Amino acid sequence: MSSRPDTPALPAFLRIHQYAGLKPGPRLLVTAAVHGNEVCGVAAIQRVMAELDSGALQLRGGTLSFIPIVNPLAHQLGRREGDRNLNRNLRPPVVPQDFEDRIAGPLCRWLADHEVLLDLHSFQGQGKPFAMLGPRNNRGELEPFAHEQAEGLLAACVGTERIVEGWLSTYALGLQRRAERAGDGSRRATLQQDPHYGVGTTEYMRSRGGYGITLECGQHADPEAPEFAYKAILRVLVLLGMVDAEVVAPRPASAPELLQLYEVVDREHEGDRFERAWASFDPVIKGQRIGTRHDGTPVLAPADGRIVFPAVNAQPGSEWFYLARASTRQLG
């Protein structure tokens, strides 16, 4: 693959750091910059590694691995993606087609070699940190899973006020509708119609027998986001018994709000527009106009709930926004 005019050379490796405790314990992988412009986790990982290296933080046991910059091309360019979204359609490629395919090979091997994943992200709009966890225990075809309790405890420990479930099952509904529309023949359109497209780091981790959460640590430029990510890493290490409990304050005592995604709506045309500047978790009521299609058709909320991940600049054919409602799930 040839180099691009906006970068001197393609990154040739992933930098991976590993600390092997002298006593048995869990195998934890902490990742950041899966999207290259989401850098709070990079700073948090570097801070934890500095404390481990200096002896200020002692690993009691287990194996702790860090990949501070999962997508070095996107990070180098200062944007979300290199050639495409690495956190979609994640699997070892048969024949690599782009830079993210080349990352996927070693990344999937490292995911499969660990039991627990903490994947650190940030988001574009304003808002507070939140965690995303996977399905409840099931033997279904979409995302069979057997670690509901452990993953729920993981999500509850990091200190967010809000936890969201239901990503892959909701995305599958969107895929069904997307498959009925003709794409433009581009690789992006082909990937977006692939049934595997909703699979990212945590989904792949679960497919290999592990569990993990996506932690959205705040807005991209929020100066508090690196501190939140840092404390989250320590809280996970405490939860897993890998460091002493005294290294970080416990999470707030109040229970987090738990929401379930249930619908995804694609942007179909560049003329599709939102009714107003939505932020994630803004409330909506049944029948409220969320946006308008390019031909004037209103896009209405089907029920009371919250709007999640509104993407005002979404590409036509990709996710425009999600809808969520209160969940009845118990986190253990």
From TrEMBL:
Cofactor(s) in the UniProt record: Zn(2+)
One Pfam family matching this protein: AstE_AspA_cat
UniProt-recorded name of the protein: Putative deacylase
Record key words, sorted: Hydrolase, Metal-binding, Zinc
MF annotations from Gene Ontology: hydrolase activity, acting on ester bonds; metal ion binding
Listed PANTHER family: BLL3975 PROTEIN
Residues annotated as signal peptide: none
Keyword Zinc-finger: no
Domain Succinylglutamate desuccinylase/Aspartoacylase catalytic: 24-96
Coiled-coil residue spans: none
Gene3D superfamilies the UniProt entry points to: Zn peptidases
